[in-house]
Amino acid sequence: MPEQKKPEENQEVKPSEAPAASPIAPPGTPADASPEEIEAALAANEADSVDALTVALAELATLKAKATDLHDQNLRAAAEVQNMRRRSEEDVSKARKYAVESFAEGLLPVMDSLTAGLAIQNATNEQLREGAEATLRQLKSALERNKVLEINPAQGDKLDPAKHQAISVVPAPEGSEQEANTIVAVLQKGYTIAERTLRPALVTVAAAK
Predict the structure, then answer these.
(1) For residue 116, which phi and psi values (nearest 5 degrees)?
(2) H helices within the chain, ranges in order?
(3) What is the pLDDT of residue 109?
(4) 209 and 180 in contact (C-beta within 8 Å)?
(5) Each residue of 64-75: pLDDT tens digit?
(6) Could you give the C-alpha distances from 50 to 26, 38, 40, 44, 126, in angstroms and in order?
């Protein structure tokens, strides 16, 4: 019997004789898929990846554009707030500086009337009274235009500590049914300005019976 030759250990395999490596199938590929099917699946998977990357880049560009627009809007809003604050400060400054302008303008006719009355030589008592009454009307009108109103309660009105100051307690007028702590007489008118008490009216109030 002829002697069989043993295969040499660690015998080098030539590249031309090495088996071709099978491509790695992407997930979801059937186990019995042919190399051509695997190649097609790989190509499709690569195309999907490229499409997904393109979409992601487009979305990123859109987000960057929106971020830039929001940044510009914030800058414009901050500038507008700064301008509004500056204008408000200027308005407050002007209001403080010219707060009495309207009031002073209303007093000018009063000044004119007083000047004209004093210019009359040998004025009669009646003329002086008429001139004083006219001047008082002008003064009252100027005060009212600037929201300065009289506090002149009637007899029997209830005492209001926010607007009235009682300086004495007196007996109620004889024959009246006036209740205690109601006004008997006004000794000095009070005034309010813009619904705030500028000076309370000085009054007397009825004592308890």
Answers:
(1) -65, -40
(2) 35-97, 101-119, 125-145
(3) 92
(4) yes
(5) 999 999 999 999
(6) 15, 18, 15, 10, 107
